[in-house]
Specification:
116 residues, 59% helix, elongated
Length: 116
């Protein structure tokens, strides 16, 4: 094996250098992902498979005799009105909110001129 004085060329080949289209994609990718997340959330909130149905919070509407039992039953009945009926609808709403927040943050970044 022979040692040479010439150093190896460590520059990237021309075909591996970052193309201009890649920089454009980096700017547009959050918009595409945000729109995709919103679309997935909209589909999930519309489709409600029965496998994701949640059980009723009030299986029976029994009232206890004592004041503490009545308070517990009143609280349980109130929670039944707030509890979701289907888990996919809740996931869909969460995805819609997350996608909207992502789009809003990216739009504000564009308006502010940030490239991060």
């Amino acid at each position: 094996m022979r040692l040479t004085e010439k150093r190896p060329d460590l520059k990237l080949p021309a075909h591996l250098k970052r193309a201009r289209g890649a920089a454009d994609w980096d700017r547009l990718a959050p918009f595409a992902f945000g729109a995709g997340i919103i679309a997935a959330g909209a589909v999930l909130s519309r489709i409600r498979p029965t496998a994701l149905d949640l059980p009723d919070a009030t299986p029976r509407k029994s009232r206890g005799a004592g004041p503490i039992s009545r308070l517990i039953a009143w609280t349980r009945d109130g929670a039944d009105h707030v509890a979701p009926e289907n888990m996919s609808a809740q996931l869909g709403r969460s995805l819609i909110l997350a996608g909207t927040a992502m789009l809003a943050a990216r739009v504000l970044d564009e308006l502010a001129g940030r490239d991060d």
